[in-house]
């Protein structure tokens, strides 16, 4: 995202939200959307407003705000009762919201307007069926938006395909200070636990799903021990800046999401930099985001139409191209839009249906059926989440490096010196004036 777009998303749009929603009598014609940063072609907002009026005969004004982590979004709705009308959380966050009774069922009744949500891929629907919502089915409360995988972005100039084929690369001292790790405890844990139990997985002693549910002290300790070995090699724990570091070749390896892999490769290619994306052989996770309507929404009707509009094939294509993230929509138009002859054919029948057994497309966007068959799916850990967060804080927080410690000590010395000077110099001045 450019600096100007970041300013719009983080400053101007929230300001507009406050101004619009403070106007008495306007809430029924206002739709408050809460979405991930860098997750949409913002030009579709105006189009939705026009389309909604054409479909319903009623005006609507969209107030669009963004978040960077699921936990912030969840807190604003659960604790603050913020009245967002439509939100786009991730899979485990949808589970969390369902268990906390924070979501409304989504009606697919759009009158004479086509139900574009019907084009959500059967693969996504199947995964939403697996969402653990305390007895509530995920497909009744969420509509798939985007999905992808978690893997490794790497610079082919410095890292071989073989090296990038395993999560073990993160412990290779050859890449010290060239590794960036996504600052997401859950995403990191889920990949590393698969790596550490690769032999158990191959022997059938444990399943991927069992590992995705393993929140035991033993499992967390295993991952913590691994990450303590990784930490001295890490150049940064990042929520957004890691992709820029890769494009600028300050980083050679990044544990990251597939959408970031697509974006970085596109940005780096004109500079002659070959960035690739790997799904390590030990296993990886597939993640999903979906549109939901929170319990405290004020404009449910417009929220339903927003979800339907976002599932329209042409809108889904534009958003996917803008962000690099794969759409959950499996309409024929979407399949056709992403056919690319420079890539070898892959089997996408799991996503698009039996006619898509050999599609030439970017495998970062659409992994082959064979590689994705045993991918893991992250879940909400409930109260055990705090144990995971505590482990992550220990991994990142302990052992401040020497340079940082020296800088902090120097700053404290300067501050104490200034305070000392002001106190006693001021006292001398007072005595002179007396």
Structure description:
The protein contains 19 helices and 14 strands. It is an alpha/beta fold and 434 residues long. The chain has three domains: 3-105 and 107-141 and 288-336, D-Maltodextrin-Binding Protein, domain 2 (3-Layer(aba) Sandwich), CATH 3.40.190; 149-285 and 376-397, 3-Layer(aba) Sandwich (D-Maltodextrin-Binding Protein, domain 2), CATH 3.40.190; 402-434. Strands 5, 6, 7, 8, 9, 10 and 12 form a seven-stranded mixed sheet that branches. The chain has a three-stranded parallel sheet with strand order 2-1-3. Strand 1 (30-36), helix 2 (44-56) and strand 2 form a beta-alpha-beta unit. The N and C termini lie far apart (61 Å).
Shape: globular
CATH overall fold name of the largest domain? D-Maltodextrin-Binding Protein, domain 2
* Total number of helices: 19
Structural class: alpha/beta
How much of the sequence lies in strands comes to 5-15%
Largest sheet report: 7 strands, mixed
| Oligomeric form | single chain
Q: How many domain units?
A: 3
Task: Report the strand count.
Answer: 14
CATH superfamily of the largest domain: Periplasmic binding protein-like II
Query: What is the class of the largest domain in the CATH system?
Result: Alpha Beta
CATH architecture classification name of the largest domain? 3-Layer(aba) Sandwich
Which percent bin holds the helix content? Answer: 40-55%
Mean pLDDT: 89
Tell me the distance between the termini: 61 Å
Report the C-alpha radius of gyration, rounded.
24 Å
Low-confidence stretches: 1-24, 399-410, 427-434
